[in-house]
Structure formats: structure tokens, C-alpha cells
Amino acid sequence: MARTVDWDGDAIAAIDQRALPAEYRIRRLATVDAVVAAIGDLTIRGAPALGAAGALGVALAARRHPRDPGRVRAEAERVAAVRPTAVNLRRGVERALARLDDGADAVLAEACAVLDEDEATNRRLSARTADLLTELCGDRPLRLLTHCNSGALATVAWGTGLGAVRELAERGRVAEVLACETRPLLQGARLTVWELREMGVAHRLCVDAAGPSAIARGLVDAVVVGADRIAANGDAANKIGTYAHACAAIRHGVPVVVVAPESTVDHATPTGADITIEERAADEVRTIAGTPTAPAGTPVYNPAFDVTPAELLSAVVTERSTFRDGAWTVAAAPALR
Ligand SMILES: CSC[C@H]1O[C@H](OP(=O)(O)O)[C@H](O)[C@@H]1O
């Protein structure tokens, strides 16, 4: 699989995640308008992937308007504002924009650095999470519940929550993954299942409401999810439905681990109550694959995310820190070999 988001020398090359699993196709995005549209319609989705797309969107603007920094900043703001919850999007934009005074080539180089750093970061946080799950659940094949998609498709490569599943599978420590379909846009059914088949990991698909029930019936050893923004106190915003799994998990003594890069931790946001939750279009709920499921005009409540309070989480794991029992601890630097 190619990188989820990449630079082809003149434009952004992105896997079109709306087309999966039926079709694997790359969309070429050569303008800021195209990037804004692709983020809005979830051609590109997932916090780290959004960060990469945001940085590359600024690079496109800087190449298009090399002598108009004001225009570049305005275009950058258009990109950053498309989706408010995933902190990585604005961070990727700001990181690229910080090089604007050095010229368009420097902006592009910074954006490409965002991409180049991602896979190594995700492999590190995946290994740290696999170690923690082994500590929490025992050194045995585990039955894991996932929600939405936090795999390679949500990042530039490898993945976060599903990256940890991949790491455990390579260690021979995954018995089965129960993948929640994730209404309304079905990232679980369409994307996580597709990635699990690519990995050769045993899995079953279930409706979202079956997640808490599976936990209650003792079918799940741990819940492993990604995140879009993690507040300073460890509260985590993730796909709508995550909170319900966590409520069931704490009642039944099942660990819930949030896996995300440091770039998703927002220490400037004190608690989950301070996180803006994106509301999406009503028709996403009133239809399935374009077929109406409710009468036209039915009023809809469609938050794209919910917040799981830190007290319901066993841990938040990044590539270099862990939030557990109310505190962040930084991992010791890996021993020099
Ligand atoms: C590794 S970030 C994945 C995160 O992003 C998803 O949201 P969306 O598909 O709307 O971009 C979901 O919350 C995943 O957990």
C-alpha cells in the first residue's frame, strides 16, 4: 500500500478513502481548493493523515503565491479550518507555515518532513502500546475491539491504534479483532476491515451497538482506539461511539487504551469539555451509501466525535509518553545500541 498521503513532485497524491473497499484509487490534489474539498469529504481522514495533508496544502499555496505571504496565510487558514476537532490538522498547517519566510521550497521541505516522520513515530507508539497491553492483559493472544479506523489509512503509514494491533499480530498476540462498523460513514466496515484483511488478522465485523454487549459478554480483552485530540488532563476526543464502549469497558473491568502520536496531545486544551466537536451533514445519517433511510428533511444529530474522560481510560500511549492514573510520564530514551 502506498503512503496514504504523499507528494508526487508537483501535487499531493492521496488514497481516496471514500472509494475503499470497492476501489483502490489515488486522487491527485494540485490546488488548495482540492485539498479543502478532500479533507471535507473525507477523501483524506484520520488525525495524522490530516496533519500531513494540512502541511502539504500550505506547500501548495506557497508554490502558487511565492510573493504573496498574506495570500498564503489566508489559504492556510482555509485548510486548517475545514475540520475543528483533530488538532493535527491545524498543527500540520502551522508547522509548514512557520517556514514561510524561508520560501516555498522550505515550506515544502517541512511538509515532507511531517510525512517522513510519521511511520517511525507510529511504529514506536505501536510497540509501546503492545508492551502495555501485554502488561495489562497477559502475554497471550488477545481479543481486541476497535472503533472507526486508526490504521495506516488514518496516518501517512503504519497506523496508531490499529498499528498497535498490527504490532501485536506480528508478535503472535492477537486472537481476533472485533471491528465496529462505525456509523454513519463506516470507517470500521470499509477501512479497518480492509486493513485487517491486508494484514491477515482474524476479525469479525459488528454493528457499533454490539461493542458494549460483546464487552459485557466477556468477548473482549481490551479496547484499542485512536484519537483526534487529547486534552491536557487525558480526556480523549475520538469517533462518536468510543465513549459508549468505554462506559461498558470500565463496568466490566476491560482496559481501554487510546493510542496517538504526541502531535495529537493538546496541552493547551485543559479538558475534554474544551474540545470543539465537529457536527457533520444530516444526510450522512439520513442515508446509507446514498440510499435514504429516513424521510427527507428528518432532523438529525450528527456529532462526528465524542469525548471519553480520562477516568474511563486505562492509558493514553504516545511514541514517548503515557498518561495513566491521572499523570503523564515520559518514557526513558531507548538505550543507544
Ligand atoms: C489515527 S486518527 C483516527 C481517528 O480519526 C477518525 O476520525 P475521521 O475518520 O472522522 O477522520 C476517528 O476518530 C479515528 O479514531
CATH class of the largest domain: Alpha Beta
Tell me about the largest β-sheet: 8 strands, mixed
Listing every helix as H and every strand as E from the N terminus to the C terminus, the arrangement reads EEEHHHHHEHEHEHEEEHEEHEEEEEE
Ligand catalogue: the ligand CSC[C@H]1O[C@H](OP(=O)(O)O)[C@H](O)[C@@H]1O
Number of helices: 10
Function: Catalyzes the interconversion of methylthioribose-1-phosphate (MTR-1-P) into methylthioribulose-1-phosphate (MTRu-1-P).
GO molecular function, one term: S-methyl-5-thioribose-1-phosphate isomerase activity
Catalytic activity: 5-(methylsulfanyl)-alpha-D-ribose 1-phosphate = 5-(methylsulfanyl)-D-ribulose 1-phosphate
InterPro entries: IF-2B-related (IPR000649), IF-M1Pi (IPR005251), IF_2B-like_C (IPR042529), Initiation_fac_2B_a/b/d (IPR011559), M1Pi_N (IPR027363), NagB/RpiA_transferase-like (IPR037171)
Give an overview in words.
By secondary structure, the chain is α/β, with parallel strands linked by helices. The protein folds into 2 domains: about 110 residues, translation initiation factor eif-2b, domain 1 (Four Helix Bundle (Hemerythrin (Met), subunit A)); about 200 residues, Rossmann fold. Helices cover about 40% and strands about 20% of the residues. The protein is built from 10 helices and 17 strands. The strands form 4 sheets. It has an 8-stranded mixed sheet. The two termini are about 30 Å apart. The relative contact order is 0.12. The model has no long low-confidence stretch (mean pLDDT about 95). The site of the ligand CSC[C@H]1O[C@H](OP(=O)(O)O)[C@H](O)[C@@H]1O has 16 residues, from helix 2 and strand 9.
